[in-house]
Write a structure and sequence with these properties.
The complex is a heterodimer of chains A (about 600) and B (about 240). Chain A has three domains: about 190 residues, no CATH class; about 180 residues, no CATH class; about 200 residues, no CATH class. Chain A is built from 20 helices and ten strands. Chain A has a six-stranded mixed barrel with strand order 2-3-8-5-7-6. In chain A, α8 runs antiparallel to α15 and α16 packs parallel to α19. Chain B has seven helices and ten strands. Classes of the chains: A alpha+beta (about 600), B alpha/beta (about 240). Chains A and B meet through α14, α17, α18 and α20 of A and α1, α2 and α3 of B.
């Protein structure tokens, strides 16, 4: 207990002494775990939303559709209800294929389901706004209405006829918008289509007014809902419905189909989460490495007063673990808030979204990994150093590198100093290169995503109704890129400031000898920029490769000038960002820096 | 004083404020003539090093004026101060303050390169100076591979590379053993003989005894200013840079 108290007390003292480092660890872990939890929860949340909608709307276990219509088709479909494994049904009902125009401009394919004014026991759409169908009025599926920007009281034109929108509803009988038509006209393939409901009489009148294509469907509830997937195999070949080439849609199929819109979202978020985690490790590891001497002295002191290896490790790691776990909790809370929007880009489903248990565990493992990877090296170093040596630990001295010295000797003084400083911490230079590469990879993927052409959801692929999946992917990719760039900025500032602090003696000497603040700033910026150069060059092809891993066959690469611009822009931004902490460091009093070094 | 290289008037430097105010330098007037060697002595914390930093433009005074070679420097921008340090002043520190990433020769070259000297000329000067201080054979060594005395000799060579008007030395023998101290004293004696203006802050009586003038400090003020009798030859120009 005493050891725990001591570890906590030391951790709190460290946090008070280095609040910026704790804040950075908290921020990095928060964004990484939130992204990871979002990515890993998507499919589970989609399933949960479907299940919630299904329960709220008495969703059918199987929907049987035929590309044809007429009394024979209806009779054949109705005969399915005689089967002993069918316990309830709704229909048969008419599905009319038409065009819908909203606000006088936005046109979209639509399927109109002809329903009774009093819904049956199966497939009872849940009205979320307004009221259920009545003669002369239409109810729009919520995801479709959202995309159209239409609400209760507005008017829409379907196949040239004007209807008031009397209600907005959701159903689990069809896939989410824009896959409201489960089969196309006459049983063929369907386009991106919205869903609307009318009374059965209005639907019949609509179909007859323009001789529109009509199909027929029936919703079934089975004794064993789990058997819905295999129901179609149990309908014998000589069953009357087979004559009309039925399509069977189980609830499992529909639930799975809901995830089509999230097909790219999950890799974007999961890979984004790993990349953010990586940047978190590099940033925090840099700060931790900058404190090696301090940590080693602390370990020496603890050893001197009789602490064992366990207590020393706990004292040194607790600070990082506590901040990482706090970041994890914050990240999971943010993920919970963002999940409804991220997991359900259409409004076709209802229900609450929670991160899944697996996602919570994975995010927590990521947070702990960030803390341990960042702090393990300095901790082990501190534990392995002999007590007396540890008590007098100081910053690591540079190694003699004759080749580097010979190669850099002819360079201008600021560049020479910058290169020598970068060479002093080769590990940090590698992390700097990786940070730059990660940023350029994200920007390249973003540019590649934006270079793809997409079919809109409007009539004949019109972009008047945007492609929600593409829009969702782009927004997620933009959000991930912004987070990655933000962490990269924090990292670059950290790298530069840490280098500036470690090099303050060198820079103070240079200034005492007549180097101007500009020359000192240039040297520090060069120390950061030089490792970033290979990172930027590698980032472009790596980014395109990452995109190709998940792209379909007809992917379009972005323009080379865009990619070159991304690499160059990243380097210029790095140069500008390094100048700020370098300039601040260059303004510190020379005499005090020299005195501090001598002390 | 005609020909003063350094002049200070009413020089004040305070650190902290309120209860914790420290008057490190308190109303000091000083003039150092060209070619003069001035030793500043006093107990630890009396403000000797702060005075040296003020004279060399490493610190800005709280009040008062500092003139180097007829130019007032306490009002200059940081950039202009850098120019003064680079051309007019050479520093020697107790802790040597060599750039750890640079070899001995590169350390000596550094002020010359900063002053715009060509790399070839900077290397020529560095090698010549390292030879003068007996370290030509260590030119490519990093500071971490040199002894304390060797490091200080490199630092002295570095201070001289731009032919400064004045060399400011802060406890130059404070971290050295007897043999290394004698070697540094020999170099200072050569500089003094060559007419180099020197201001040396020291605790070491042996160092102070080599000066033309000795001032004693206490609590930020001069309490004594004595001209030492030691006569020495003057005008040995060319000691540092013999004609090519």
């Amino acid at each position: 207990m005493g050891s725990l108290l001591l570890a906590v007390r030391l951790a709190l003292a460290n946090v008070r002494r280095h609040p910026a480092q704790a804040a950075m660890l908290l921020l990095s872990v928060t964004v990484a775990t939130a992204t990871m939890a979002l990515g890993l929860s998507l499919h589970g949340v989609s399933d949960a939303l479907y299940a919630h909608t299904r329960a709220a709307t008495a969703g059918p276990d199987v929907v049987v559709l035929s590309g044809e219509s007429g009394p024979e088709v209806s009779a054949a479909l109705a005969s399915l209800t005689d089967r002993p494994d069918v316990v309830a049904h709704h229909g048969p009902y008419r599905i009319v294929y038409a065009e819908l125009t909203a606000r006088g401009a936005v046109a979209s394919p639509v399927v109109v389901h002809g329903f009774a004014e009093r819904p049956g026991p199966v497939n009872r759409p849940l009205v979320t706004d307004g009221r259920w169908v009545r003669p002369g009025g239409t109810v729009l599926e919520r995801g479709f209405a959202d995309a159209l920007g239409v609400g209760v009281g507005d008017r829409v034109t379907i196949a040239g006829r004007s209807y008031p929108v009397v209600g907005i509803a959701v159903t689990a009988a069809t896939s989410i918008y824009p896959w409201g038509a489960q089969i196309g006209p006459y049983g063929g393939p369907s386009d991106y289509t919205g869903l609307a409901w009318m009374t059965a009489a209005d639907a019949r009148a609509l179909a007859r007014s323009r001789d529109l294509p009509v199909t027929t469907a029936i919703d079934l509830r089975l004794r064993d809902p789990a058997a819905a997937d295999t129901f179609r195999h149990t309908v014998p070949d000589d069953h009357p419905v087979r004559v009309f080439r039925p399509t069977f849609r189980s609830w499992q199929f529909t639930a799975q189909h809901d995830k089509v819109i999230l097909r790219n979202a999950q890799p974007i978020l999961v890979i984004g989460g790993w990349m953010l985690g990586f940047l978190a490790v590099t940033g925090v590891a840099t700060l931790a490495a900058g404190r090696v001497a301090e940590q080693t002295r602390r370990a020496g002191l603890l050893k001197a007063v009789g602490a064992g290896p366990g207590l020393i490790a706990a004292a040194l790691l607790t600070e990082y673990l506590a901040a990482a776990l706090a970041g994890d909790a914050l990240g999971l809370a943010l993920a919970r808030l963002a999940l409804p929007v991220v997991a359900a880009p259409t409004a076709s489903r209802i229900g609450d979204a929670e991160p899944t248990a697996g996602a919570v565990v994975a995010a927590t493992v990521l947070a702990v990994a960030v803390a341990v990877l960042a702090a393990l090296g300095p901790t082990l170093h501190a534990m392995r150093t002999a007590t007396v040596t540890a008590l007098a630990a100081s910053a690591r001295r540079p190694r003699h590198r004759p080749l580097l010295n010979a190669l850099t000797a002819p360079l201008p003084t600021p560049l020479l100093l910058g290169l020598r400083l970068a060479a002093r911490r080769p590990g940090r230079a590698v992390l700097q290169a990786c940070t730059t590469a990660t940023t350029v990879v994200a920007i390249t993927v973003l540019l590649t995503v934006h270079a793809q052409r997409e079919r809109g959801y409007g009539l004949d692929g019109s972009v008047a109704l945007p492609n929600l999946r593409g829009l969702h992917d782009r927004r997620l990719m933009l959000a991930i890129t912004v987070l990655l760039v933000a962490l990269a900025i924090v990292n670059i500032l950290t790298f530069t400031w840490t280098t500036a602090m470690e090099a303050r003696a060198t820079m103070a000497i240079a200034r005492a000898l007549g180097a101007t603040p500009g020359q000192v700033t240039t040297a520090l910026s060069a120390a950061q920029l030089l490792p970033g150069l290979p990172g930027a060059v590698l980032g472009v092809p790596l980014g395109f490769l990452v995109y190709l891993l998940f792209a379909t066959g007809n992917s379009v690469p972005p323009r080379p000038s865009w990619m070159a611009g991304a690499a160059l822009g990243t380097l210029l931004a790095t140069a500008a960002l390094t100048a700020l902490p370098a300039r601040l460091a260059a303004r510190r009093s020379v005499a005090r820096e020299l005195a501090a070094e001598a002390a | 004083m005609p020909g003063a290289v350094i002049r200070a008037r009413g020089l004040v430097k305070h650190f902290g404020r309120g209860q914790s105010l420290v008057r490190a330098v308190d109303e000091i007037d000083l003039e150092v003539a060209e070619g003069e060697t001035l030793a500043v002595m006093g107990p630890s914390g009396c403000g000797k090093s702060t005075l040296l930093h003020l004279l060399g433009g490493l610190e800005r005074p709280t009040a008062g004026e500092v003139w180097v070679a007829g130019r007032r420097i306490d009002t200059l921008s940081e950039r202009a101060l850098a120019g003064v340090r680079r051309r007019s002043v050479g520093f020697v520190f107790q802790s040597f303050h060599l750039v750890e990433e640079l070899s001995a020769a590169e350390n000596v070259e550094l002020p010359a390169l900063l002053a715009g000297c060509s790399p070839r000329e900077a290397r020529r000067r560095a090698m010549l100076l390292l030879e003068r201080v007996g370290l030509a054979g260590r030119a490519r060594h990093l500071p971490s591979r040199l002894s304390g005395g060797q490091r200080q000799r490199v630092a002295i060579a570095r201070a001289l590379v731009n032919e400064p008007l004045v060399v400011l030395a802060d406890e130059p023998t404070g971290n050295l053993d007897t043999a290394a101290t004698l070697e540094v004293l020999r170099i200072f004696a050569e500089l003094r003989a060559a007419g180099q203006t020197l201001v040396i802050v020291t605790h070491d009586e042996r160092v102070a005894a080599t000066a033309d003038r000795l001032v004693s400090m206490r609590d930020g003020m001069f309490v004594d200013d004595t001209r030492l009798a030691a006569a020495r030859p003057r005008g040995l120009g060319g000691l540092l840079w013999p004609e090519d």
